[in-house]
Write a structure and sequence with these properties.
98 residues, alpha+beta, globular
C-alpha cells in the first residue's frame, strides 16, 4: 500500500470514527491531510457510512482538483489556510457535533 493509499484509508477511518462517536452526521464536517502538492480531503456530499478511500479528493493549495472525480469539501479553503499558516500541521479535522 502506497503512502497516498494509507492516508486515504486513514481519512476514511477517521471520518467513520467521528460518525460512530456522534461528532458528525451524514456528510457534515470534513477531514484532510497535507500532501507535497496540496491536500487529500473528504468529498462534498458523501455520507461517511458510504465513504471509500477512492472517494478522497486530492486538491492543490488553490483548490484545483488534482485527482478524484468528486468535489472536494466546500471547506477546502479553511484547510488550505491552516496549512499555509501552520507548516507543522499535517492534518485537519473539522467536526459538526450535534
Amino acid at each position: 500500500m502506497g503512502e497516498s493509499s494509507a492516508v486515504r484509508a486513514a481519512l476514511v477511518a477517521g471520518a467513520l470514527e467521528l460518525a460512530e462517536r456522534g461528532l458528525n452526521t451524514g456528510s457534515a464536517g470534513n477531514l484532510s491531510a497535507r500532501t507535497a502538492g496540496g491536500a487529500l480531503i473528504t468529498p462534498s456530499g458523501v455520507e461517511y457510512a458510504e465513504l471509500a478511500p477512492g472517494d478522497i479528493v486530492e486538491v492543490a493549495p488553490d483548490g484545483a482538483v488534482l485527482r478524484g472525480s468528486g468535489r472536494p469539501s466546500s471547506e477546502w479553503c479553511c484547510h488550505a489556510a491552516i496549512y499555509r499558516q501552520r507548516p507543522e500541521v499535517g492534518a485537519v479535522v473539522h467536526a459538526h457535533p450535534t
